[in-house]
Amino acid sequence: MPPAPAPLPHSDPFALGTGTIVGGKYRVDGFLGSGGMGVVLSATHLELDAPVALKIVRDDFAANEAVVSRLLFEARAVARMQSVHVVRVLDVDRLPNGAPYIVMEKLRGADMAALLEERTTIPIPDAVGYLLQACEGLIEAHSLGIVHRDLKPENLFLAITPEGVVLKILDFGISKDLGSVIREGRRTTLTKGGAAIGSPSYMAPEQIRAEPNLDARADIWSLGTILFELLTGRCPFQAETVALMYQRVLNEPAPSLLDFLPDAPHELNTIIQLCLRKDADDRFQSVQELATALRGVARPPDVKRARVESGVSLISEVPARPPGVSLPIKLGLLATTTLLMVATIAFWQLQIRSTVQRPASISHPSSASVAPTNVPPAPTPITQTTAATAVEGVRVEKPEPRDRPEPAPRWPAPSRRPAPPSAGARYGL
User: Are residues 46 and 115 in the same domain?
Assistant: First the structure.
C-alpha cells in the first residue's frame, strides 16, 4: 500500500485544506509535493471513488497570466499524448478565484532523484533501461512538436504498476510547442529578455543562450546528462554558482565516462559524448537515433553456454552429422535388394515347374495311320446346308441349321483312321 499523504504544510500560501471539495467532485486528502508556483495534492474522485492528483497554482500566482497560461498549456500538451511513459491528464478546471488546476493520475513510487539519493549510482543495465523508457515517452512528444525543456531526475517518476516499474515523464509546464505559433505566442512573456528556462545542471547550451529556434535536440542533451549522473552519481558539469555552471557548459568539453567507470563499455561513453556536443548539429538528431544506439548497448552479449531448465542440462548446439549415407538409407537399400532377389528366385521356380508338368502332346507316326491302297474313293461330301435321306426310293433334302457352331478342334487332334462309308450310303440307299 502507498504511504498516506502528508498533511498540508501551513507555511505554503494555499487556501485549500484537507477535506475540501474541489470542483464539486474531488476531495482533498493530503499533500504530495510543491514547486515554485504550485502544489500537487492527493485527492479522491467522489463519484468513482478513485485516487487522483491535483496540480494547483498557488494563491499568490493565481493572478499571474503567464503562470496560468503555462499550466493550461501543460494540460493541453499532455492530454494529446497516449504513451504509457507520460503521466495521464484526466481533467482541467478552475477554482472560484480563477486559478486553474489539473487532475492527473495518482502514481505510486518515487522519482529518480529519490532513487539516486538512496543508491548514489545505478547499474548500467538499469540506467540504460530507464533512459530507454524516457526515450519512448519523448518520441511521442516530439512527434507532436512538443519539447519538454526541463528533463531532470525529479521529473522522471518510477511508478509501481501491476506490469512492474514504469518510468513516466512529469511536468510539461515549461514545454515548448513547435507546431503552434498562437499558443507559444501567449507564453512569450516566459522567455522575453533572454531569460533561460530550465534546470541549470541539465540545460543545453542553446537553452542557456535562450535561442529562439530551440528544438528537440535540447532534450537529447538533458538525457545525456541524466544518463551520466545515473552511472557516476554526479552531473557532467558542476559548479558552486549558476553563472559558473553556465560558463562550463558553454566552454568546457564534457568529461569522459571512462574516467569514472573504467570498465564501462566504450560504446556507452561514445553515446554520452554525442548527446553532450556543444553544437546541436553534432548530436543525435532525434530521440529515435539515441534509442537505437542505447538498445545496441543494452543487448546482452552472445555467450554460448548450456541451458538448464528444470534441473536438466540441455545441449545448446546440435552436433554435426558425419559425412556419408545415413543408416536409414542403408537399411532401405538392403531391404529393396532382398525383395528383388526373392522375386527373381520365385519367378524361375514357377517357370521350371510349368515345363515339367506339361504333357507330351505330339505322338510318333504308326502303321495304323497309313491308308490302305484298296479302299474305294470316298463319296462326294455332303454340304453343310443339306443332308440326304432315302425314304422308299425318294431322295429328300433336309436343311441343316446354320447357326449350329462347329465343334472346336481339340489339341492335340487324335490320330485315327476315318471309318469307310457303308455300301448303302455309296449308292444312295
Answer: no
